[in-house]
Design goal:
mainly alpha, about 70% helix
Length: about 60
């Protein structure tokens, strides 16, 4: 699975339990941009929840 550098950053921050707003502030982008990255991550990993997303990311070694 191919993730962009930014998608990997967002995924890592999601796994650290940051909210969409907190991630946007940390990365200096809009909430809407982070929502788009989240949608893309759910689609690429075929996940339906944050728990499923993080589990799949760990399984694929996309995050620590």
């Amino acid at each position: 699975m191919k993730l962009t550098k930014r998608e990997r950053e967002v995924l890592q921050l999601i796994s650290e339990e940051l909210t969409t707003k907190e991630i946007a502030e940390r990365l200096g982008v809009s909430v809407s941009t982070i929502e788009t990255h989240r949608r893309n991550l759910f689609q690429k990993t075929q996940s339906q929840s944050v728990v499923g997303l993080v589990k799949e990311a760990l399984r694929l070694k996309l995050i620590n």
